[in-house]
């Protein structure tokens, strides 16, 4: 049970595997509207400029379970 003023996100679990644009990713942390995810296979050959970091912040509606 959550106390008054606490936010409940509960859409994603840390370590959960999700997908973004066909890439498999692991959830690191969840916030109100965003998730921090980490690429399972990094670096992505040919996409180094598009994805220069192994962790990125995405809107929740951009990832699928």
What is the chain-wise order of helices and strands?
Answer: EEEE
Head-to-tail CA distance between termini: 25 Å
Number of strands: 4
- What kind of assembly state do the chains in view correspond to? single chain
Helix content: under 10%
Count of DSSP H/I helices: 0
In round numbers, the mean pLDDT is 90
Give the overall shape: elongated
Strand order of the largest sheet: 1-2-3-4
Round the Cα radius of gyration to an integer and report it: 13 Å
Low-confidence stretches: none
Q: What structural class do you assign from the helix and strand content?
A: mainly beta
Largest sheet: 4 strands, antiparallel
Strand composition percent = 35-45%
Molecular structure report:
The structure is a single chain. With about 60 residues, the protein is mainly β. The chain is about 0% helix and about 35% strand. The chain is built from no helices and four strands. Strands 1-2-3-4 form a four-stranded antiparallel sheet, with no helix packed on it. Strand 2 (about 25-30) and strand 3 form a beta hairpin.
């Amino acid at each position: 049970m959550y106390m008054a003023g606490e936010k409940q996100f509960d859409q994603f679990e840390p370590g959960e595997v999700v997908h973004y644009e066909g890439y498999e990713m692991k959830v690191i942390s969840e916030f109100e509207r965003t998730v921090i995810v980490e690429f399972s296979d990094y670096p992505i050959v040919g996409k180094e400029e598009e994805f220069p970091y192994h962790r990125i912040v995405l809107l929740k509606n951009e990832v699928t379970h």
